[in-house]
Amino acid sequence: MSATSQANPALRERNGGQILVEQLRIQGVRRVFLVPGESYLPCIDALYDHQGAITPIVCRQESGAGYMAEAHGKLTGEPGVCFVTRGPGATNASIAVHTAFQDSTPMILFVGQVGNDFYEREAFQEIDYRRMFGQMAKWVAQIDRTDRIPEFIARAFAVATSGRPGPVVLALPEDTLWGKATVPDMPRYVRSHAAPTPQALASLASLLDQAERPFLMIGGSGWTPEAQRQVEGFAERFGLPVGLAWRRLECFDNHHPNYAGHVGWGMGEALRARIRESDLLIAVGTRMGEATTEGYTVVESPLPRQRLVHVYPDPEELGRVFRAELPIVADVVSFAAAADGLRPSRAHHRATLVERARRDYLDSQTAQTAPGPLNLNQAACHVRERLPEDACITVGAGNYAVFPHTYYRYKGIGTSLAPTVGSMGYGLPAAISAKLEHPERTVVCYAGDGCFQMNLQELGVAMQYRLGIVVLVFNNGIWGTIRAHQEREFPGRTIALGFENPEFAELARAYRGYGEVVASDAEFGPALDRALDFAATHSMPALLELRYDPDGIAPGMTLSGIRAAALARQAAG
Ligand SMILES: Cc1ncc(C[n+]2csc(CCOP(=O)(O)OP(=O)(O)O)c2C)c(N)n1
Predict the structure, then answer these.
(1) Does 453 sit in the ligand 1 pocket, CB within 6 Å?
(2) Exposed (0-12), middle (13-18) or buried (19+): which is 392, by Cβ within 10 Å?
(3) pLDDT at 8
(4) Is 481 in the pocket of ligand 1 (CB under 6 A)?
(5) Whether the predicted pLDDT of 5 surpasses 80
(6) Terminal CA-CA length for the chain
(7) Which of 18, 81, 145, 555 is most buried (CB neighbours < 10 A)?
(8) Cα–Cα distances in Å, from 476 out to 242, 378, 408, 483, 487?
């Protein structure tokens, strides 16, 4: 060993796996989600030397592992880290990469790769990850030299967290991992920020002075409790009703008197009209995607009818879909800090605007009726009253998710994990990730019977790591959302959307958890108490299977009603 390498312990010879894992530790990684594979064995071996600092969470399927890492990114703002094997592991994990991309979540996926001695022969499980992940990752690279691992990892952290956050995929050829190098580590990455200019803030203040019906729309990622408080103050001072972009329910306290509701598919007419008719729309952190804008109708593309102030961390997004009168390149933290210093230059009379918006929101939270003895609207209201304020609610995709999204009141970062991309199977892995990160919090996963069965194998992870999560499975025996679409477009021609279900409560018991079937309103409250109590005292999963009339497909909506309306439309020609 040379004198230099003795002075700097990092400068000893290490294999690629050791360099990589030590670099992760320097970057502050505390937990990695993985399904093991022989293609990245040196990384697994290197974890042996970092026990206590980096916990490997051994998952059952790569989509579960990937979703957990993505949820970790949402919860902490730091990249969630996932390791999967080459080929089949990577393809299984791809759903989480796509989720992280559309949801703008920092995440790093490490994938094994064939050695450079075999590449381009379609060797065993070989895929070109640059092409495979090209459209759904912020950056895809292959580390072809052992001595460049620190450089690539440092860059991966910077890329995943900068501007609009997103996923990075790094492929790890076998020779890179087994090879040895004497190379210094890179220091921990430093996060960059984009802040609004004084001119932009002055223009914003002037637009606010002129506006009569402004609306503040909040979304995206990167929010902190401090930024949320600052934006609350901004909304209060300027008399702004606040809406949350589609499934970004954790970005603003729903209890706040300025909060006006969840913007996007299925929103009430009052909220829709309020945004459409606003004379100044300030969108902060959100891309205002298809779901949020209800197919670019509430905010029209390319030229919105509202005067638009669009605050976004990535300049390439500004002007891409919407022409803003005032585009501002800023991340949410920097914008919130700057907005904290803004004061109205003249009195405004928007208190009634805010009060009316709030009243409409609260009205929308009165439980609607539903067919059958178990009314999910009432159950969702009960959950709202029963859970502590800092509880985390997770969902995947399906109409069942509309119940918590309509009736629950979320209170800031970490209280909602919901894929804006609408990918099924997310709720359970996300709940596991949330409970790992916040063991003291109550975590409740809402899952459709279809959604749950996409990743139910991860119950094994909840069991293994003693995670007292509560899972509510919505058993209607159909892929309900698609059935609703079917009835709307092809009324009465029901096919290919039903399934026979297992006994979910028994499944939970097989995983040494608690399981109970609930089939009526009267049963729901006591059963929820028992599930919460079991999860808290045994640190094991508890599951309630909710059997309900499939006709009650969403708040205020029945399948029979959708069918009748579609048939009437057809009859009218
Ligand atoms: C991974 C994935 N596959 C398919 C879909 C299309 N999809 C959206 S909702 C849905 C049905 C969900 O069924 P379930 O979980 O039982 O909930 P329900 O709609 O019945 O409430 C399907 C198949 C999707 N969004 N994601």
Answers:
(1) no
(2) buried
(3) 54
(4) yes
(5) no
(6) 85
(7) 81
(8) 34, 17, 21, 11, 16
Any atom of ligand 1 within 6 Å of the Cβ of 162: no
Q: In degrees, to the nearest 5, what angle opens at C-alpha 250 toward C-alphas 370 and 236?
A: 105
Structure confidence at residue 334 as a pLDDT band (50, 70, 90): very high
Percent of the chain with pLDDT over 70: 98
Average of per-residue pLDDT values in the chain: 96
Q: Is 548 in the pocket of ligand 1 (CB under 6 A)?
A: no
Indicate whether residue 175 lines ligand 1 (CB < 6 A).
Answer: no
Cα of 10 vs its chain's centroid, Å: 36
- For residue 310, give every residue at least 6 positions away whose Cβ sits within 8 Å of its Cβ, in sequence order, or none: 283, 288, 318, 322, 324, 326, 327, 328
Best of 395, 451, 558 for a ligand 1 pocket test (most atoms within 8 Å of beta carbon):
451
Residue type, 520: S
- Residue 252 backbone phi and psi in degrees, to 5: -150, 140
Pocket probe for ligand 1: among 424, 428, 497, 548, the residue whose CB has the most ligand atoms within 8 Å is: 424
Contact (CB, 8 A) for 263 and 292 = yes
Tell me the per-residue pLDDT of 121-160, one tens digit each, with 9 for 90 and over. 999 999 999 999 999 999 999 999 999 999 999 999 999 9
As a whole number, mean pLDDT of residues 20-26 equals 98
Q: State if residue 482 touches ligand 1 by the CB under 6 angstroms criterion.
A: yes
Distances (CA, A) of 32 to 66, 110, 394: 10, 10, 20
Three-state DSSP state, 561: helix
